[in-house]
Design brief:
By secondary structure, the protein is an alpha/beta fold. It folds into 2 domains: 2-93 and 176-193, 2-Layer Sandwich (Nucleotidyltransferase, domain 5), CATH 3.30.420.40; 102-173, 2-Layer Sandwich (Nucleotidyltransferase, domain 5). It has helices spanning 34-49, 68-85, 94-100, 132-136, 152-165, 178-185, and strands at 2-6, 11-18, 21-29, 58-62, 88-92, 107-113, 119-123, 126-130, 144-149, 168-169, 191-193. The strands form 2 sheets. The chain has a 6-stranded mixed beta sheet with strand order 3-2-1-4-5-11, sandwiched between helices. A 5-stranded mixed beta sheet has the order 8-7-6-9-10, sandwiched between helices. The protein is globular and about 50 Å long.
């Protein structure tokens, strides 16, 4: 049985798959208490199927980029579970998953909010950070699908750029789920790893404590 976990995007995903079937699948909007709900969610999913976690032999986790806490939470959970169950771990980047969710041979641009006024634009393994207008100006008109998770201002700007360039922005309800991606591409959609490393667009800012007795 395969466990799929994605906490790197706004809509988190957890799924159990076996062979060519999705046994159970849950999606929820990210929240502050997610770290406390992963174990209960998995336990409830297994209980509903009458299965035990020992039957999980492969774990696929999205290792970012994405929000620092959310990505770290998912990766840490997957690493710990993989070690405890002696299950094979696989990781896939947020960008690769976003592209595969479109299941298309057309040109795809995947965009993520990168903090401040910046966005990250991914195309065929290359990631560029900067303003949307500057980065997207380098891409030609027509025959391009765009999948994005941006802030409100950037989303509005993107719609104007897509209209001007003749691009198709693919909305959330038109995308496959993570479980469907694994059914389509198999475990080869991800990379087998001993330990998943969390990936970020920028190094996380960790505030040092003013308390001299606390470790940095």
């Amino acid at each position: 049985m395969i466990l799929a976990l994605n906490t790197a995007q706004r809509e988190h995903e957890m799924a159990l798959l076996n062979g060519d079937a999705i046994l159970a699948e849950e999606k929820w909007v990210s929240s502050r208490d997610d770290v406390e709900t992963l174990v209960p969610r998995l336990e409830a999913m297994l209980e509903g199927l009458g299965l035990d976690k020992s039957e999980i032999h492969d774990i696929v986790v999205v290792n970012g980029p994405g929000p620092y806490t959310a990505v770290r939470m998912g990766v840490s959970f997957a690493n710990a579970l993989s070690e405890g169950l002696q299950a094979q771990l696989h990781s896939i980047s947020t960008f690769d998953l976003m592209v595969k969710k479109l299941a298309t041979t057309d040109k795809v641009l995947a965009l993520l909010f990168a903090g401040g006024l910046d966005a990250a634009v991914y195309h065929e393994g290359d990631v560029q950070l900067g303003s949307l207008s500057t980065i997207l100006a380098k891409h030609s008109h027509g025959d391009t699908k765009v999948v994005a998770e941006l802030n409100e201002a950037q989303s509005i700007e993107l719609k104007g750029i897509c209209l001007e360039k003749g691009w198709q922005e693919v909305e959330g309800h038109e995308r496959s789920s993570m479980a469907e991606v694994i059914l389509t591409f198999g475990l080869k959609a991800a990379q087998a790893v001993d330990l998943a490393d969390a990936q970020y667009l920028r190094s996380p800012k960790i505030t040092q404590s003013a308390n001299p007795w606390k470790k940095p």
